[in-house]
Amino acid sequence: MTTFDKPALTHLEHIERLRNRNLLINDDDEVIDYLSNISYFRLSAYTRPFYLPNIAEHTFIFGTAFSDVIDLYLFDKELRLLLLDAIERIEVALRTQVANTLAKHHGPYGYLDQSIFDNRYDHPKLLELIASQSKGRDLETFISHYKTKYTGAPKHPPIWMAVELLTFKEISLKI
What is the mean pLDDT of each run of 10 residues along the chain (175 residues)? Predict the structure, then answer.
């Protein structure tokens, strides 16, 4: 069994380590600023494409600068944000389509009818999830309003509220 024996390093010690591995650093203060906001450990993942291949010791390809590592990190961050935006749009569209389709064909509470679901789906579990989320999310304005105003309505909310209570996974797997 190998023992973990890596010491915690200061920002200046990290800079020294990077320089010893042949990374070009022009401005120590800039690197310290980045390391104060992005951990060395996280940033180290973005250094890997700049290492000389097939060498056990991490050594940077000649001419690699700290700015190259930061540029890759920022590119990854921007790409991640673009993908999250696209995923969010797809998720909202899916919730909308599920709610609109079920409401149009089966009414606001049609999802309470087990017969409209494929028998492979665990309908009781779906209703349990919605009921559980409804109870736990009383702080949600729409659930609080529904429970207060529509006291004679079913305890489960209409489908357009229900889909907002479920996770994306629960909607895509259960409905």
Answer: 92 98 98 97 97 93 98 98 96 93 96 89 87 74 88 91 88 60
Tokens standing for 9? 């390093």
Distance CA 93, CA 4 (A): 48
Confirm if 144 and 92 have CB atoms less than 8 A apart.
no
DSSP code string of 12-70: HHHHHHHHHTT-B-S-HHHHHHHHHHS-HHHHHTTTGGGBPTT-SS--BPTT-BHHHHH
pTM for the structure as a whole:
0.72
Whether 62 and 22 have beta carbons less than 8 Å apart is answered as: yes
> What is the C-alpha to C-alpha distance for residues 68 and 79, in angstroms, rounded to an integer?
16
Residue 173: its pLDDT value, please? Answer: 59
Pairwise CA distance, residues 114 & 140, whole Å: 27
The Cα 10–Cα 13 span in angstroms is 5
Q: In the block, which residue shows the tokens 């190998």?
A: 2
Helix-then-strand count for the chain, H and E: 8, 0
